[in-house]
Amino acid sequence: MNWLNDTRIDCFSAMETLQIKDYLSLVKNAHENRGGIGGQRDVLKTTTAKRIRERMVADIRAGAVLPPVVVGIVETPNTVKKLVAADDVDLDEFVKNLKGESLSIIDGMQRTEALMDACKIDKGILSGQIRVDFWLAKSVRALVYRMLVLNTGQVPWNLARQLSVVYEPLLREIKANVPSIERIITPDKPGRRVSGGQFSSEALIELFMAFSLRKTSIDTRESLSEEFSRLDLVANVADEKVQGYFYETLSTMAKLDIAFDRIDVGSQGRFARGRDIFSSQPARIGYIVAVSQHVLGKVGLEKSSKERSARMSALVKDAGALTEKLKTCSIKELRGFLRLDVLSEILDRKVGQVGRYERAVFYEAFKLLIEEHFSVPDMEPCWRAN
Question: For the whole prediction, is pTM greater than 0.85?
Answer without folding.
Answer: no
